[in-house]
Amino acid sequence: MAAQIYPSILSADFARLAEEAKAVEGADWLHVDVMDNHFVPNLTLGMPIVESLSRATDIPLDLHLMIAQPDRWAPQYVEAGAGSVTFHAEAAAAPVRLAREIRAKGARASMALKPATPIEQYEDILPELDMLLIMTVEPGFGGQPFLDIMLPKIRRTRELIAKHGLELWLQVDGGVSASTIERCAEAGADVFVAGSAVYGAVDPAAAVRTLREQAGAAIAAAPWACDH
């Protein structure tokens, strides 16, 4: 169970995205937040920027779609260069069909849950996914403090993954830093989105390595990983 670190370009300098992507070489994936000012009260970059970014870096792109109508738009983001596309359970009209369409186009399919959305009602569709994202803040803005009350939800999700014997990555996003990443890993996460903790550092690439080491050590000592 290797820890993966996904720097979030929401915390990068949007005027220098190609350079900011190069600054985190060695990261596992690059996390790209797409917001439409409908599903969340914020507006960020869209498909043309994703296309340009995919040409500017060799790091695979992990798209997090915080948008309305992901059933319509998610497949197009695969065509724009995304290697993984995350849609929100709260916004998708047909999550199983959408996950299968994303996979059919050659990308990893992922589903995100807002803090108040329980995991249990989605247990039956977990085999249709490559990754599940547990939001540890309310989606929409970077720099929010980590919600400790999400740790039990991460644990329950890891238990469901083990119950069904799935090779499903469990991602957390929101307030992930040197002071919170070990708790997330101990609870069951193995993929970590980090924004300001990476791009706010003097050396972003070194921050990625440090976070990965912290998470890896916590996973190695975690009961859920020892039982796997």
Automatic annotation (TrEMBL):
InterPro entries: Aldolase_TIM, Ribul_P_3_epim, Ribul_P_3_epim-like, RibuloseP-bd_barrel. The active site is at D33 (proton acceptor), D173 (proton donor). Gene3D superfamilies: Aldolase class I (3.20.20.70). One of its GO terms (molecular function) is D-ribulose-phosphate 3-epimerase activity. Its EC number is 5.1.3.1. PROSITE patterns: RIBUL_P_3_EPIMER_1, RIBUL_P_3_EPIMER_2. It catalyses: D-ribulose 5-phosphate = D-xylulose 5-phosphate. Binds 1 divalent metal cation per subunit. Keywords: Carbohydrate metabolism, Isomerase, Metal-binding. SUPFAM superfamilies: Ribulose-phoshate binding barrel (SSF51366). A divalent metal cation binds at H31, D33, H64, D173. The keyword Transmembrane does not apply. Pathway: Carbohydrate degradation. Catalyzes the reversible epimerization of D-ribulose 5-phosphate to D-xylulose 5-phosphate. NCBIfam families: PRK05581.1-4 (NF004076), rpe (TIGR01163). HAMAP family: RPE (MF_02227). This is Ribulose-phosphate 3-epimerase. The gene is rpe.
